[in-house]
Design goal:
Blueprint (H helix, E strand, L loop, with lengths): L3 E5 L2 H14 L8 E5 L7 H12 L3 E7 L4 H9 L1 H4 L5 E5 L8 H7 L6 H16 L14 H12 L4 H5 L22 H11 L3
Parallel strand pairs: 1-2, 1-3, 3-4
Length: 202
């Protein structure tokens, strides 16, 4: 049986894709697949070898990385790996295979409408930071990274106990929790189409 290997940049991407694939496809309709944490967006020798072996065995490789600050540049750079290292893979770049951004940008877009006030509070916090000056500091204050915003969003919703706090961590998040995330959001359609095309059993 051919195998689909999905290469991601980190634990957050791995956990999100595991939950999302479970949401969009019944187990009986999913090809044998494995998600591999490449521990960053570069390509190392180990990753190359796994991809090449999978291709030789008739499998399919998927690369799902962040577009970061320039979608077109990142796409060209990653696609170049095909010729540079003799690899075969299909590529999807978060957040939507079109715009600049990361997994965290995607996650912002699938926050349920009822929880949007939390995002409004965060935006107010960022505006406040930008408006402040600190004696002895020439640069504006640094606004927190998107990852911090997602942590803050979940922390606002979860309880104060250690057991609840653990659920904030990337590898412990439950993206199937409809009180926190909308996995049926139209924003996810490009990712859904990409994954279903590659993972659905024929």
């Amino acid at each position: 049986m051919s195998t689909v290997k999905i290469f991601v940049e980190g634990i957050a991407d791995e956990k999100f894709l595991l939950d999302y694939i479970e949401h969009i496809l019944p187990e009986s309709a999913i090809k044998n697949y494995t998600i591999i944490n490449a521990e960053g967006w570069g390509i190392n020798k180990k990753t190359q070898q796994i991809m090449q072996r999978n291709t030789d065995e008739g499998g399919v490789n998927l690369v799902v990385f962040d577009a970061d600050i320039d979608f077109e540049d990142k796409k060209k750079e990653i696609e170049k790996w095909k010729t540079d290292f003799h690899l075969s893979f299909e590529l999807f770049l978060f957040p939507n295979n079109r715009d600049n951004g990361t997994l965290e940008n995607l996650l912002e877009e699938i926050i349920p409408e009822k929880n949007r006030p939390i995002s409004d509070c965060w935006e107010g916090y960022e505006k406040c930071l930008k408006s402040k000056t600190i004696e002895g500091r020439e640069k504006p204050l640094t606004t927190p990274a998107k990852k911090t915003k997602i942590y803050g969003y979940l922390e606002a919703l979860l309880g104060d106990s250690k057991r609840e706090k653990v659920k904030i961590k990337e590898k412990e998040r439950d993206y199937g929790n409809i009180d926190h995330w909308d996995l049926g959001a139209a924003y996810l359609n490009p990712l859904k189409e990409f994954l279903v095309q590659q993972l659905r059993t024929r």
